[in-house]
From TrEMBL, chain A:
Belongs to the binding-protein-dependent transport system permease family. The chain crosses the membrane at residues 59-82, 94-118, 130-151, 184-205, 225-250. One of its GO terms (biological process) is transmembrane transport. GO terms for cellular component: plasma membrane. This is Polyamine ABC transporter permease. It comes from Falsiroseomonas bella. SUPFAM superfamilies: MetI-like (SSF161098).
TrEMBL record, chain B:
This is Spermidine/putrescine import ATP-binding protein PotA. Residues 6-243 form the ABC transporter domain. It holds the Pfam family TOBE_2. Its EC number is 7.6.2.11. PROSITE patterns: ABC_TRANSPORTER_1, ABC_TRANSPORTER_2. One of its GO terms (biological process) is putrescine transport. Keywords: ATP-binding, Cell membrane, Membrane, Nucleotide-binding, Translocase, Transport. PANTHER family: SPERMIDINE/PUTRESCINE IMPORT ATP-BINDING PROTEIN POTA (PTHR42781), SPERMIDINE_PUTRESCINE IMPORT ATP-BINDING PROTEIN POTA (PTHR42781:SF6). Belongs to the ABC transporter superfamily. Spermidine/putrescine importer (TC 3.A.1.11.1) family. Part of the ABC transporter complex PotABCD involved in spermidine/putrescine import. Responsible for energy coupling to the transport system.
Amino acid sequence: MRGALWAFGLLVLLFLLLPILVVIPLSFSSGSFLSYPLPGLSLRWYEAFFASDFWLPALRNSLVVGTVSAALATLFGVPAAFGLWQRNVPGRRLILAVILAPLAVPAIVVAVALLLAFGPRGLANSFTGLILAHAMLCVPFVVITVLASLARFDPVLLRAAASCGADPWTGFFRICLPRIMPGVAAGAVFAFATSLDETVVVLFLAGPAQRTLPRQMFAGLNDEISLAIMAAATLMVLLSTLLLGAVAWLRRPRR
Amino acid sequence: MDGPLLRFERVSKSYPAAARGAAHPAALAALDLDVARGELLTLLGPSGSGKTTTLMLLAGFETPDSGRILLEGRDIARLPAHKRGIGVVFQSYALFPHMTVAENVAFPLEARGVPKPERAARVARALEMVRLPGYGDRRPAQLSGGQQQRVALARAMVFEPPIVLLDEPLGALDKALREEMQHEIRTLHQRLGLTMLYVTHDQQEALTLSDRIAVLAGGELRQVAPPRTLYDEPADAFVAGFVGENNRLAARVSSVEGETAHCVLDGGGEMPARLAEPLRPGAPCLLMVRPERVRLDAAAGLPAQLTEALFQGDHVRLRLALPGGAEVIAKRPVGEAAMPGPGATAMLNWEAGDAWAFRAEDAAR
């Protein structure tokens, strides 16, 4: 029985990992076709990726959009979490539901709605529009991780700060923020990873100049089947793994 | 300056029923209370008595529904906590864990914009006062509970507030440490002339520390008096029962003679007591007498049967049954003439001035 459970568990893991495991070796292929067995190993597709003006601007766009929208989401999410954490917030559950709504609403619905809203205002096909959209989608991740951090923060410390003569701003920045910083950082990284991964909204909102890595992969599949796309995919897997590892490290239990 | 340092004037606070739960503080009804400069006043009461509410209102963590709180003549009742300039020592210490001891103690000075060189000197002096010199570079987590509480004290005093509030500061410490810290707080209070408002539910601690004790119950102030007066002349049956140990015997007033009431116990027998409140003959009453005031060597009095005698080191604790079934505890010195063993009968008596007669309904309140 025990053995069967182990086997089942391993099969499920394999099911989850197989697509990734198939992609990664292909990116090191010395051949030009999406097929196994590999004719040989080489880094030619990585060289092609980093020499290409098809992929490099997309990578840059991904990093810029991810960084700025993660920063915005943190700026919006941290105060929201801090506010919701206070006792006696009227309509607390409703506010939280609204903030978390982007998690529940299908991405395609958000994308269509944003296109309709942004289009007439000149925000479609612009970095501003794309960054605003991603910031909105990322806020829930920041709010959730920061709320989890605040659950371990002793509110008496803020009273102590006030009794020391510190106004609420000073109390927040000097006493609360340093204590919840790992959660804030984890939320920001989570937000960045979410933006990096996001494809549907980019598909609708990004013009040729704003194409991010996933969007460019989508285009690359249509235009030409170059194995450089596998290099791009592997890089994305690597980045996501690093980022999620960073989140786990930041949120590790302490003392 | 004339007048008290701190005055509560008809201060009331109530909480909506929905918000009230076990963790919520009790309401407060029209509290009038003065604290003199340099005084150590204790708010004493069981949980739900309103003592914590009083402290929260003073510290600025709650706002009263009505009434004024005057600190040095200025109404601070609606001022935000950080503008009150009152030092607070919390039960959980509430030290900032990411700061060193020195940074913790310097925080109130930093918040007030005291220049850095002066800060360092004042922090060093404060740490010396609580006997922790040289601990400035440690983190709170590296200190024992008693040391953390000293740091909390230093942080609450370093900016020389007019009054320091202490919210059950010794509740988390073991007995020996608690007694040491009581001594320390008392010493600091006397040496620095600090005004302190101390909250506790521990009547022994209140008796040990206080210049005066304010007893609260059910959101009402029952009595404010020095420890000795509170113990010897309790204002009502609640205070008599809460502060120190007391025997309570149900009785009925048979006659009144000036200050003295003669009372017939429900189980039979007539005993004298001082009138704590005006009572008419025939009124039901509650007799209260301290165990150490109960005498057993009398020729006359109440016949009682000894059910238990416990040796306590410095005294013997005796449990006696009265004819009606009521029970009386007596404490007698160990050296006293041969004690009867369990099962023996004794005549139980007390001086008229050592027992108090209270209105019977006080006990129920």
